[in-house]
Amino acid sequence: MFLLEYKIETNECTMKNFLSFLLILLLVNLSVAQTKALDSLMITGEFAKLIEMADASIESQSKKEAFLVAKAYIGLGNAKKASEVYQQNLEDGDDLRHFYSYGKVLLQQNQAKLADSIFSYLHEKNPNNAEFLYRSALAKQKLDSEDFKKTLYQAYDLQQNHLLVAYELAKEELKQKNYAIANRIATQALWNNPENTSLLSIKGQALYARGKWEECVSTFNQLKKVSDVPLFVELRLAKAHVKLGNYPDALKHYENCIAKDPTDFQILEDAAEVATFCEETKKAQIYISQAFALKDVSRSRQYYIFGTVFLQKEDFERAIGLFTQCIEEDANHEKATYALANAKDRFYADQQKILEAYELYLQNFPDGNYADLANYRVKELRKEIFLAGERLKEKRK
């Protein structure tokens, strides 16, 4: 009897264990099936459906499923909710990729201090990963930390072909006016991707700042081939061509600038000046008129600018009249006073009149920007007038 009871109890126990095993197996299979379903939704970008499905079984939700939910929130652009999921589930020892995602979410939320601690933790775990150092540098930048640049260089030393690192570093060197270094870093990075617009822009700006006009033009033209460029690039191209004496090319770029911003009176004035060099007098007058319409320009400045147009056109008589009017409006207008002397020098045959014009300039502006040129011309004229007088005396004898 005892043996029979023992057998019955043993069978019941075995059956219970078997049923428990089947239940566990069923739950595992259901969990695996759900995780697979969530994976499928993530791959196809069905982020809202993924979150809805995961929330329906939140009590039995695995950590892997929780991290899928966090990624879904990131996909929906909800960094706050993603951050909350990571905070609730992340533990030391979890896969580093989840900490990495969490750190990036924190950066998006401008939680720079916490983000920096996450990326510092990742760097400790994997010191050879340049990406972790790069993200740590971005956090330090938001914190105005002195270690920002140092950390960037650490990332750069680990992986020089990390273009985001190279760009941030070149940009920082450009900001600090270390133009040669900025150019070198951008140039090296462009070997890996010659059409990277950000790096081409940095390189072009560095070359412009160093006065490397031909290289600057070449770099910015490269940039224009692969992308629409902002106003400042067209403007630098225009000014670089002016420095090279390529006035027709400069005018084209100024016209591009005007098309991008027809309200900048300074660009219009510069375009007018370049147009005069190209003997495009009509364009020059149009641009100057447009500039005046946009700014409350003094009459003296109007007279001066129109005078320079006619001086470039070699219409010296009208230029002289306009410079004279400019000086009548503003006796302290140094440029107009020198320009008047220069116009008379090129128009009058009477050397005494020319001499008086240069002497007027030196009288009013003895230490002016054009004093050396004026003094040199005065000496020449006095010598020529003296020699002409001596020749006249010889003839009368």
Automatic annotation (TrEMBL):
Keywords: TPR repeat. TPR repeats lie at residues 231-264, 300-333. It holds the Pfam family TPR_14. InterPro entries: TPR-like_helical_dom_sf, TPR_rpt. It comes from the Bacteria. SMART domains: TPR (SM00028). This is Tetratricopeptide repeat-containing protein. The lineage of its organism: Bacteria, Pseudomonadati, Bacteroidota, Flavobacteriia, Flavobacteriales.
